[in-house]
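Issue 218. Parser rejects a valid record. Input:
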Amino acid sequence: MVYARMRWSAGRRPETVAVLLPMLVMLVIGLWGLDRGGMWRDEAVTFQVARRSVPQIWHLLHSVDAVHGLYYLLMHAVLAPHPGEVALRLPSVCGAAATAGLVAALGVRLCRPRVGLWAGLLYAVTPMAGHFAQEGRSYALVAAGAAGATLLLVRAAGSARPGPWCAYGATVAVTCLLHEMALLLLLAHAVTLGLARVPTRVWRAWAAAATVAALVLLPLVLASRAQSAQVAWLSPTGVPSLKRLLGSFTGPARIVVVPYLLLAYLALVPPGVRPARTRPGALSLPAVALPLAVVPPVVLLTVSRWWPLYDERYVLYALAGAPLLAAAGADRLAVRLPRLLPHTALTGVLAVSLVLAVQLPLLRRDRSPDRRPDDLAAVSVFAGRELRPGEPVLFLPSLARRSALAYPQGFRGIRDVALSVPAPASGTLYGQETGPGELRRRLDRLDHVWLLAEPFATRRAWRPDNATERAKLALVKEEFVPREKVVRRGVTLRLYVRRLTYSPVTPSEPPRPGRPSAGRAGPGALGSPPGPRR
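Output the parser choked on:
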């Protein structure tokens, strides 16, 4: 018996290495520069919502972000011991590492250990995987769930027992609850079963598991449909969207894209790559990887031509199929050219290392806060330099308050003029603001006010739907004149003083020590063409 165990352990060693090594590489890449010094807007939402109580989170989900409800509850537990930016992103790092290992496990099961090793490593060094490994959002966890569900599908298709199908259905359900766009994974799996021509019993078992998962997701779909205004910022898709996604899946460098696509094509050319061990109901690697990589993005891109719902992060989980195809193509090439490719497994690892070397500059740049749409920590720092305790501040629009919610140090002691009910108590992301009448009464008591505005809110073409936002614009423009302006990436902070107390010759308030001179109001005032950025 001991001898048999030793033989089993020796036989499993290549498969174990093939799975663990990509996980380790992905973990190192994910941890590299994890504390980049600032959260951007989406991460800040996760951070401030997850630190609320469970009843407050539940209250919020009735009006906004229902699609992220399960993720917020998970992050509530993660951030409870020690809230911080590293803790915020660690679940995504772990999710990305798990995905790399699951991609490798798929390659091992569907083909052979070296295919799994190459596919897992290729996934780990892809910039798209590295980017979302450091995002405090749910997408890396969704990718792990999708890869796990795909592996369970492969196992269940070759099993006559109901247990694997129960595990498959549960994994799909949890993955879709993390983000409902993962429901497209079921379409990819249906195409996989169709390409493999599985027997009727497999179709019945899959349909039962898929139906249960869909029923579990139905309440979330209905709730999020009522909150569809949250994705109103998305635009219709076209060929450029497809090209960007292709570059994200393979890496943007042409020296990587062309060989990547050639290897993937080679994996699909008949007779294709066959599993090393054939089982009843077994699935081939191309039949699994191709639908996974293609079906969810193509369906979402097509729908989004008329009903915009597409964003690359929503189909991150489809990335798992691409390295599997490339690795399978490389394996087929190695089988055909054994003399040109000695020590095949090591040669493939070296090739992936070259891919990493080519894409390393992009991975390095991605560790900078400047690679995100905004840096709320920097906004808080410069607000802290400009604002003194007791200063009145208007946030335009209300979502500009996110920097104060994420990094309150720079806004400590200020008077939030428009705020009526704080965000946690109001069940909103940014707080409930007072009505136009009360806002006017509050502003009437002030001789000056600071306006912290998002870039789009300072454009003349912006016409807000909310009455309070319109009142902010009108009152500031009619009753105040601009005096100082500080512009930073992603936000504008401007001091307005009341017209009756303002004199361009004798300012109503002398410049404060330590503040850079801003001069008088001029071009760039609210409602005027923007002036030069400072």
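Fixed in the parser; the record now loads. The chain has a mean pLDDT of 87.
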